[in-house]
Amino acid sequence: MPKGFKSGFVAIIGRPNVGKSTLLNRVVGQKVAIMSDKPQTTRNKIHGVYTTDTAQIVFLDTPGIHKPQSKLGNYMMQVAEGTLNEVDAILFLVDVSEGLGGGDRYIIERLKQVKTPVILVMNKIDKVQPEELLPIIVQYKDLYPFTEIVPISAKQGTSVNILLEQATRYLDEGPMYYPADQVTDHPEQFVCAELVREKILNLTREEIPHSIAVTIEDMKVQDNGLVHISAVIFVERDSQKGIIIGKNGALLKEIGKLARLDIEKLLGNKCFLELWVKVKKDWRNQDRVLKDLGFRH
Ligand code: GDP
Ligand code: MG
Ligand code: K
Fold it and tell me: Superkingdom, according to UniProt (predicted)?
């Protein structure tokens, strides 16, 4: 490792839909964080690793900070808050096309309890005129002493390199935590489960998203080279099971097809994806079930 190599951890926070996963995906160049138009699709910490010749940043995509409504919500918030005190810098993403709202104010109040330096990332600049930017920046600056303010477009990639340079300045000298070619420390199984969940969120209506979890029960390479994956989709009610399966199984088939195509891209291998739908009543409020589903470390 070169002398003077820097490394550290950077948390990406922001209310739902500001573009945290999009930014992380752009930085690590692979689909590791689930993306969806619906809020709060990111439940677990996802590490994305960005490595150059001189530095390594390990990114944490924290679940949305919000007022908890169930034990799962509580857990998500603890993860987010715990993370913020451990990292070298925080990227606070906001959506410039929507501007300062209650969600951002709530997060800023929480940031005041944390000592870690905060970089304000003004995302989605492709959606506003340049002259609209300054008044929005002023609104945020008045509320908190951000150490940097960086306007970007995560979707188009604009100024993401500048953001990475700025973030690197907050790292100390340190080791390479992950091999240079590794972009996530989560097992492939986790990413596969997230891809299945993403397809469900994209193909169903509002009542489904917060009541599902996906686990990979089995994943193995068969003799013929095919990767066999067995996944279970947990829902809370029979009616939700019906929705996900669809008429004559049509929706489940579509979910499976789209997920399989993404998983094949990810693994670089042909796959057979088997999907099961199970009803687990009120799983969001049962500690043990949450543990079973991998929400506790
Ligand atoms: P998260 O909930 O914060 O992780 O947000 P996502 O990364 O899932 O993004 C939410 C939505 O915003 C998606 O439809 C993205 O394509 C979109 N989005 C993210 N970044 C940008 C951006 O820079 N410009 C525009 N126009 N859309 C973006
Ligand atoms: Mg996300
Ligand atoms: K702070």
Answer: Bacteria
Q: Supply the ipTM of this predicted assembly.
A: 0.97
* Nearest partner of 104 among 16, 12, 34, judged by Cα: 16
Q: Are residues 97 and 139 in the same domain?
A: yes
Number of helices (H) and strands (E), helices first, in the chain? 9, 10
**Residue 22 near ligand 1, beta carbon < 6 Å:** yes
Which ligand 1 atom sits nearest the alpha carbon of residue 158?
23
Taking each helix axis as running N to C, give the angle between helix 20-28 and helix 160-168, from 0 to 180 degrees, rounded to the nearest 10. Answer: 80
Comparing C-alpha atoms, which of 158, 160, 96 is closest to residue 129? 96
* Digit-coded pLDDT (tens) for 109-163: 888 888 899 999 999 999 999 999 999 999 999 999 999 999 999 999 999 999 9
Residue 45's identity, in one-letter code, is K
Any atom of ligand 1 within 6 Å of the Cβ of 37: yes
Q: Does residue 157 sit in the same domain as residue 213?
A: no
Q: Is the pTM of this model over 0.80?
A: no
Distance 197 CA to ligand 2 centre (A): 12
Domain CATH number, residue 277 = 3.30.300.20
Q: At what angle do helices 238-245 and 250-267 cross, to 10 degrees?
A: 70
Q: Where does the chain have alpha helices with state H?
A: 20-28, 71-86, 102-111, 130-141, 160-168, 188-203, 238-245, 250-267, 287-292
CA distance linking residue 211 with residue 234, whole number of Å: 8
d(CA 126, CA 119): 20
CB 47 within 8 A of CB 59: yes
| Intra-chain end-to-end CA distance of the chain, in Å | 31
Structural contact between residues 64 and 107, judged by C-beta atoms closer than 8 angstroms: no
DSSP bridge pairs for 157: none
